[in-house]
C-alpha cells in the first residue's frame, strides 16, 4: 500500500490549490483567446497551464526545489515544440506567433502555481491579458500607419510578365538593369501564367529603395518588345 505511505493530506491540499489556480488562470487567458477565435483557445491554454503546474508540483514533491527548477527548463523547451505547431507560414506572412507566445506564458503561469507562487501566477496572468487586450488597438493603429520605405525594413520585389520564348533574355535584362541601378538581386523566381506567358519575380537584396529609381527601371524595362508589364511592391519582413 504505497499510496497510504506516500499520501500526505497537507501536501495533497497544497496540490489541489496549485492545480485550481493553474486551471483558473489558464481559463482566464484562454477565454480571451477563444473570444478572438484564435487557434489555441480556452481548453488549450487551460491544459498547458495545468500540465506545467502538474509536472513542476510533482518534481518538487519528489525531489525538492532543485529538481523542480530542472523540470521547469524542460517545460519551457516542451512548450516551444507545442508553440511551433500553431505557427503557420503563408507566403511572406507568418501567423500564430502571438498564439504561440500566449501558450508559452500559460506554461509560465502553470509553473508559478506548481511552485506555490500563486501571487506571481496571478500577476503574470494579468500582464498576459493586458498584453493581448489593451495593446491590441495600439498594434492595429501601428499596422495602419503608412510605411516609410526609406526607414522600414521591408522586402522589395520587382515583377515582370513576358513570353515563355523570351524568358532567358528578359530575365537577364531584368537583373542587369536592377544591378546597374545599384539594386542587386538576391533571388529570381519564375511562374507560368496563362497564354504562354511567364511572370518573373526578382527579390532585391536592399531593404530600402528609392521609389523614383525603381519606377525608372520599370519604365525602361516596359520599352522592351517582349515585356508585357512591369510592377514592384514591398512587404515587411516580420
Question: What would you note in describing this structure?
Answer:
The chain is an alpha+beta fold. The chain has 2 domains: 143 residues, no CATH class; 83 residues, ACT domain (Alpha-Beta Plaits, 2-Layer Sandwich), CATH 3.30.70.260. The strands form 2 sheets. The protein has a 4-stranded antiparallel β-sheet, with helices on one face. A two-stranded antiparallel sheet has the order 1-2. A hairpin with a 3-residue loop joins β4 and β5. α2 packs parallel to α6. The protein starts with a helix and ends with a strand. The mean pLDDT is 84. Virulence factor required for growth in low Mg(2+) medium and for intramacrophage survival. May be involved in regulating membrane potential by activating Na(+)/K(+)-ATPase. InterPro entries: MgtC-like_C, MgtC/SapB/SrpB/YhiD_fam, MgtC_SapB_SrpB_YhiD_N. It is found in: Cell inner membrane; Cell membrane.
Average of per-residue pLDDT values: 84
- Helix share of residues? 55-70%
CA-based shape: elongated
**Whole-number count of domains:** 2
How many helices does DSSP assign? 9
Would you report the number of β strands? Answer: 6
Strand order of the largest sheet: 4-5-3-6
Proportion in β-strands: 15-25%
Q: Cα-atom Rg, whole angstroms? A: 27 Å
N-to-C series of helices and strands: HHHHEEHHHEHEEHE
Low-pLDDT runs of 5+ residues are none
Report the sheet with the most strands, covering strand number, pairing sense and barrel closure. Answer: 4 strands, antiparallel
Quaternary structure state of the chains depicted = single chain
Structural class: alpha+beta
How widely separated are the two ends? 57 Å
Amino acid at each position: 500500500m504505497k499510496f497510504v505511505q506516500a499520501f500526505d493530506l497537507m501536501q495533497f491540499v497544497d496540490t489541489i490549490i496549485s492545480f485550481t489556480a493553474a486551471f483558473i488562470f489558464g481559463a482566464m487567458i484562454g477565454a480571451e483567446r477563444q473570444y478572438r477565435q484564435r487557434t489555441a483557445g480556452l481548453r488549450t491554454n487551460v491544459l498547458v497551464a495545468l500540465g506545467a503546474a502538474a509536472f513542476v508540483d510533482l518534481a518538487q514533491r519528489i525531489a525538492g526545489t532543485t529538481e523542480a527548477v530542472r523540470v521547469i527548463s524542460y517545460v519551457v523547451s516542451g512548450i516551444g515544440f507545442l508553440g511551433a505547431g500553431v505557427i503557420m507560414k503563408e507566403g511572406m506572412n507568418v501567423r500564430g506567433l502571438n498564439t504561440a507566445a500566449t501558450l508559452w506564458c500559460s506554461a509560465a503561469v502553470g509553473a508559478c502555481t506548481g511552485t506555490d507562487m500563486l501571487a506571481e501566477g496571478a500577476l503574470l496572468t494579468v500582464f498576459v491579458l493586458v498584453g493581448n487586450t489593451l495593446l491590441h488597438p495600439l498594434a492595429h493603429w501601428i499596422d495602419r500607419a503608412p510605411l516609410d520605405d526609406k526607414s522600414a525594413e521591408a522586402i522589395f520585389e520587382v515583377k515582370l510578365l513576358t513570353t515563355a520564348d523570351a524568358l532567358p533574355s528578359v530575365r537577364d535584362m531584368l537583373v542587369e538593369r536592377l544591378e546597374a541601378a545599384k539594386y542587386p538581386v538576391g533571388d529570381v523566381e519564375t511562374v507560368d501564367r496563362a497564354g504562354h506567358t511567364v511572370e518573373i519575380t526578382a527579390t532585391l537584396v536592399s531593404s530600402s529603395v528609392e521609389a523614383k529609381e525603381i519606377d525608372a527601371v520599370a519604365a525602361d524595362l516596359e520599352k522592351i518588345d517582349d515585356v508585357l508589364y512591369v510592377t514592384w511592391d514591398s512587404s515587411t519582413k516580420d
